[in-house]
Amino acid sequence: MNLDDYRGVWVFIEQNDGKIEGVSFELLGAGRKLADKLDVPLAGFLLGDGIKSLANQTIAYGADQVYVIDHPVLKHYRTESYMKGVIYLAQTYKPEIILYGATPNGKDLASAVATDLSTGLTADTTMLDADVEKRLLEASRPAFGGNIMATILCKKHRPQMATVRPKVMKALAPDYERSGQVIEEKISLKEEEMRTKVLQIVNDVTKKTNLADAHVIVCGGKGMGDLQNFQLIHELAETIGASVGGTRDVVEAGWLPHEQQIGQTGETVTPKIYFAIGVSGAIQHVVGMKNSELIIAINKDPNAPIFDVATYGIVGDAMEIVPQLIAQFKSLRTEKGGEVSYA
Amino acid sequence: MHIVVCVKQVPDTKIIKINPKTNTLDRRSAPAILNPYDAHAVQEAVKIKRKTGGTITVLSMGPPQATAVIKKSIEIGADRGVLLTDRAFAGADTLATSYALSKALERINMDLPIDLVICGKHAIDGDTGQVGPGIARRMDIPPITSVIEVTEVNQEEKTVLIKRKLTSGYELIQSEMPCLLTVEKEINDIEYSPMPNMIKAARYEPIIWSVNDLENVDRTQLGLKGSPTIVGKMFTPPRPEGGKKLEGSVSEQVSQLMEILMEKKDLFTLTSSR
Ligand SMILES: Cc1cc2nc3c(=O)[nH]c(=O)nc-3n(C[C@H](O)[C@H](O)[C@H](O)COP(=O)(O)OP(=O)(O)OC[C@H]3O[C@@H](n4cnc5c(N)ncnc54)[C@H](O)[C@@H]3O)c2cc1C
Ligand SMILES: Cc1cc2nc3c(=O)[nH]c(=O)nc-3n(C[C@H](O)[C@H](O)[C@H](O)COP(=O)(O)OP(=O)(O)OC[C@H]3O[C@@H](n4cnc5c(N)ncnc54)[C@H](O)[C@@H]3O)c2cc1C
Predict the structure, then answer these.
(1) CA atoms of A168 and A27, how far apart (whole Å)
(2) Which N-terminal residues, if any, form the signal peptide (chain B) (predicted)?
């Protein structure tokens, strides 16, 4: 394998039902930086049925080129059909780097493609960089429970591939004036040759907590003491119209269901305001919330690591502070003459 | 019906002790356990076998003491287990791991044709989730990841009906057999092991294979040599700066906080307390 035959940074543009997943925009943002550093074009690649129109959006978010495979068999994601398309593209155009969102489908696809291309795949990356001289992707991921980061390298194989955790990288503001090149490719796929069929897709929004989309999250930790005191977290959230999250210790104590756990083994969230109350700020928790815009920490231990990531901190007893906060918000409401909402 | 479950021995990261100040961990504090997702994989095989009959084989690659996870799988209800152990496998990344496991599966398949392979969603130590799909590709069978329900196994038609978890919701997939599933924890609850299983497990001697017990092995694809990825460096994540601590009495602090929050008041929906 001549490594110099491989050039360019590629991003898998994951779409479901004609809608591009947020993580793909984030990866175009991160990919743009890598491509500029390596002085190569950034390309998105898009597979699906009737999805050509998404190419413009891909360019607006930073791509110079978009490779498109449009085929009825690609209507729903399936490993066997999608991997065929990606392998064809990778073998034809030889990119040096391919990034995928670490979503169920992105991970599934990347794992299969890596096996057939006999190349390296770094999982669940949270930091990306490139060594320009060696043209190496430096993909770093939390290791051994998250206290240490490991930088994984793939020195002798191309393309270098990584899946990247959603909500970690930043998307660029879209620029619909940007121009780019759209390259359409055709591959032969026959439905009767497929060994799997998607019979039904059920969007179960009730089961999913709204944490991922919440603008404001009130997160309670073990410092709330017991289940009864934890009700203060619910009360504050309810008063201001926020969603409730918790640490792993809180979930393990049975105060919240696992869906509401925030952190490395739970949800990654990026709300506009994040309250961390009675949360120590262990690294496994912090990776799941540190990109929130405004972080308010309330903790009685002035040395708690949560204060390192907080925008504002209050050192004090949550049992005293939270009820006052609730009361303040409630008084606002009555001042407003009983109006229900500000928005 | 022949189901093979791949099981890995891992350190119990839940018990690993971490010092939050220094961010270091004591690896020796963690006992080795059966990867929790793999316990659910074995349990699912047991549930399927109850309906279809057949044989459950577990396969593990690891050091000699990994026989413990095979015994644990027998306790849950597996019939037999193979441990693949050899220095030649050491230092494998996911590509080399799936290669070695697929070679062992090839031999198992010659003995007794495999209908279904079940893996965990991921191993809690390496935490990549890449080995399952890798094995499926090497065996040229469909991988179905993030499985939350095995809805139906049709032995005549040789098909399965599977619920697969998506980012929001799930999809119902029909697949030909053989195929490979990777399972989520919510797929089942681990049942209480009946006494005869415990006794069987205590006495059970796993089948041990080294690289010489496998056929047509390309040794350059094994272990460290066969691994395209390497760990370049390890570092502690940079510590963020930290923000401003509010001063004063509790009520002063709360007032200051309210001022800060009121700049963003559009984000709040002040609902009635009912
Ligand atoms: C592999 C692995 C994965 C993990 N994944 C996650 C994850 O996804 N999410 C996660 O959250 N954790 C995770 N953890 C656990 C993590 O390491 C911490 O143990 C956990 O986050 C601590 O939860 P806590 O902050 O609620 O509790 P504690 O660490 O017990 O902190 C309680 C805090 O409350 C403060 N406090 C006590 N009383 C009061 C009071 N009256 N008023 C104000 N403050 C008070 C204390 O000063 C303390 O700082 C993981 C660990 C491992 C090893
Ligand atoms: C810090 C660190 C980071 C790493 N990062 C990467 C990386 O980014 N990319 C990479 O390719 N490798 C990486 N590795 C190597 C990887 O951990 C090993 O290859 C490991 O043997 C398999 O990966 P896993 O633990 O992630 O398994 P997963 O793919 O998460 O395991 C999924 C399932 O496969 C089956 N399985 C996995 N291993 C075995 C086994 N030994 N025996 C039987 N069944 C098994 C089980 O059913 C398991 O539930 C890393 C290793 C370390 C120490």
Answers:
(1) 9
(2) none
